[in-house]
Specification:
By secondary structure, the chain is an alpha+beta fold. The chain is 52% helix and 15% strand. The protein contains 8 helices and 6 strands; from the N terminus they run E-H-E-E-H-E-H-H-H-E-H-H-H-E. The relative contact order is 0.23. The model has no long low-confidence stretch (mean pLDDT 87).
């Protein structure tokens, strides 16, 4: 199973519609007896809306799990994401979504600092987590996740909300 990371720029004026479409998705999981209840394919509507109204920035080329590791190294970044867009979509989609207003994006950039986590910091984190055997495989993906997230956060301006999907 692949785990990806993507970043979208959502106009604040369209955020509520995006959330509404995401909240319709669980309705597809309802069953009547042994046969699925006939419902409109709301998942397709959600992704069609994303394709037609939301700007997707370049996709991260490594496993999205590197973002999970990055957030363990920089826990303040997830705490900064308080915009309801990410919280509501995460709940509806049962996946990880973080959203950043322009102000939150600037705070997250500050929390990430000016230098990527060094090899020693990443290796120490993995050692502390009893996964030292795995550390060398994750150094470059975690550093790339740091660079990519910074690049994405720099793109959030004005009436846009940055939406990070990791899952």
């Amino acid at each position: 199973m692949s785990y990806i990371a993507s970043f979208y720029l959502v106009k604040a004026s369209q955020a509520e519609e995006l959330v509404s479409l995401a909240e319709l998705i669980p309705a597809q999981k309802k069953f009547l007896g042994i046969f699925p209840k006939k419902v409109v394919d709301t998942k397709t509507k959600f992704w069609d809306f994303v394709a037609n109204h939301v700007s997707e920035l370049n996709e991260y080329e490594y496993s999205g799990f590197a973002f999970v590791e990055l957030f363990a190294l920089f826990p303040d970044v997830t705490a900064i994401s308080k915009s309801s867009l990410g919280i509501r979509i995460a709940k509806a989609m049962d996946s990880t979504y973080l959203s950043f207003t322009e102000h939150e994006a600037q705070e997250a950039l500050s929390a990430l600092g000016s230098e990527p986590p060094g090899d020693a910091k990443i290796r120490a984190y993995f050692e502390e987590d009893d996964r030292g055997y795995d550390a060398s495989d994750w150094v470059i993906p975690v550093q790339e996740a740091w660079s990519t997230l910074k690049e994405w956060l720099h793109q959030v301006h004005g009436n846009e909300i940055g939406l990070l999907s990791v899952g």
